[in-house]
Amino acid sequence: MRFGIFDHMERRGATLGGLYEERLQMLEFADAAGFYCYHKAEHHFINLDAAPSGTVFLSAAAQRTEQIRLGSLVFLLPFYEPLRLIEEICMLDHLSRGRLEVGVGKGISPAEHTLWGRDPDAARARFEEVFEILRLGLTQPQLDYEGQFYHYENATMALQPQQAPHPGFWYPGNVDYAGRHRLNTIVGGPIPLLAQAAETWRNLVASPDADWNPGISEPTIGATRHMFLDTDEKRAIDRATGAYRKYHDNLSTLFKRYNVDFPPPGDPSFGGDAQTAMAVQGLFAGTPETLVAHVRKLEEVTGINYVIGAFAWGDLTHDETMASMRLFAEEVMPEFQ
Known about the structure:
Elements lengths: L1 E6 L8 H18 L3 E4 L13 H11 L4 E8 L5 H14 L4 E6 L4 H6 L7 H15 L4 E5 L4 E6 L11 E3 L4 H6 L4 E3 L3 H16 L14 E9 L3 H19 L1 H5 L16 H6 L3 E4 L1 H15 L3 E5 L7 H15 L5
Parallel strand pairs: 1-2, 1-11, 2-3, 3-4, 4-7, 8-9, 9-10, 9-11
Antiparallel strand pairs: 5-6
Helix pairs in contact: 1-2, 1-12, 2-3, 3-5, 7-11, 11-12
């Protein structure tokens, strides 16, 4: 069993510089504790993400850590000039000494696309085109490409990633797309649904339409949960309930401001209702002992051996986040070594 971290890096009371330093300290702890990977989300124009340039923050994280892998989850590809992203991925893979993981996606917020000057209806087509250019540019010395949005003629790919042929690709939330292209993926939800999703993904990975991860011998499927641990279960639930409301406020900002519905399957924060989130196992709040039991059941029923926890979210303070993570590292992780 491996354990990872998912992070939006929500803005709270600290200064930006203070927030970045707190997060780097969290990563130093995670590195020493044996976490497998830190997965950084990307959002813009809202307090959900105080570090929307993932490559900048992960470059700093690479200098403060030694072993933990570092990745995007995800780069929102419709917002990128693909050749610039190829160069930054190559740089970051070397700066991290080959520890980079590359998650890609199109984004769930139509308003983000509009504010970037992009057509939300073209998000899928733009994503597919940028992803194709990314795969080509990371593996070829010269790039010729003619598409709907981008045209390149004899562009020299002067940089190459450290990992060959490129860092592993992740596509979260859609096991069909990920499986058909042999991509790593991450899923959320109750254990029975995770079991179905994992079975679907494994069947597709065994006979994919295309292999977009040729350097990965065994792709990964992980399960994600928001987490908050305390030695007292009631205290954990009470604190998580308030923090989860703030997480929802941050996540839903643009949807409320522009009166836009969340795309299917709907609001991933369940309207900020922590009880609902716990009932469908998107949120875990409790003691290390109860979390150990939950992870054991998840492993037995689904066969998933990678669990990603979001530890810093809502209005949880740095000290609260670190106390929760220490309980996780000291009392949960050893049970699965």
